[in-house]
Structures are given as structure tokens and as C-alpha cells.
């Protein structure tokens, strides 16, 4: 599988999540990134700059949070529950995933 690193931006807070996504041997640039909060459906994240993607919520984000990546060629992968309950701004979280 692919080793993907999610670095939570220092400006993230309970209502705002920004992550720098790093992965080796990826399938080119990402065309879409989505997150799924606990017991909630998938929601699109916005590209902030380069490999940084953000999501703003009117209410507190419900962790654990899964992140779905879509490559430029349309391949998808899901890092299930990669952002854990009790996550912290400035921390780095890793996941080993496979494209499907």
C-alpha cells in the first residue's frame, strides 16, 4: 500500500481542518479530496495551496475523520479514520492505503 502522511495545519481548530497531504508513488496530482466525519456523509474539501486542502464547518468536527483522495486519473483511496478523536493542530497522522 501507499504510505500517506496528513500534516494538520497549525491554524486548524474544532471547526476548521487544513491538512498537507504527502504521499510517495502517488498517481499524479489530486483532483479531489473529501472528508467523512463520524456518522456523517462525505464532504468536499477545498484546495488551499499546493497539497494543502481545507474544510470549514459551522459546527464542531466529529472525529475520527476519514479522508478520500481522488487522483487526476480518477483513482480513489480512502484513509479510514486517519484523523483520530482528540486530534491536534500541528500533529502528523499516517495511513497505509491502497487504490480501489
Automatic annotation (TrEMBL):
Residues 15-95 form the Expansin-like CBD domain. Its main location: secreted. GO terms for cellular component: extracellular region. Transmembrane segments: none annotated. It comes from the Eukaryota. PROSITE patterns: EXPANSIN_CBD. Keywords: Secreted. It is found in: Secreted. InterPro entries: Expansin_CBD, Expansin_CBD_sf, LolPI. Belongs to the expansin family. Expansin B subfamily. This is Expansin-like CBD domain-containing protein. The lineage of its organism: Eukaryota, Viridiplantae, Streptophyta, Embryophyta, Tracheophyta.
Amino acid at each position: 500500500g501507499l504510505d500517506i502522511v496528513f500534516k494538520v495545519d497549525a491554524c486548524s481548530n474544532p471547526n476548521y481542518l487544513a491538512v498537507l497531504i504527502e504521499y510517495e508513488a502517488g498517481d499524479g496530482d489530486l483532483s479531489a479530496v473529501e472528508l467523512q466525519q463520524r456518522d456523517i456523509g462525505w464532504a468536499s474539501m477545498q484546495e488551499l495551496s499546493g497539497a494543502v486542502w481545507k474544510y470549514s464547518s459551522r459546527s464542531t468536527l466529529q472525529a475520527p475523520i476519514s479522508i478520500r483522495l481522488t487522483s487526476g486519473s480518477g483513482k480513489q483511496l480512502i484513509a479510514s479514520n486517519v484523523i483520530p478523536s482528540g486530534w491536534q493542530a500541528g500533529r502528523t497522522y499516517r495511513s497505509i492505503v491502497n487504490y480501489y
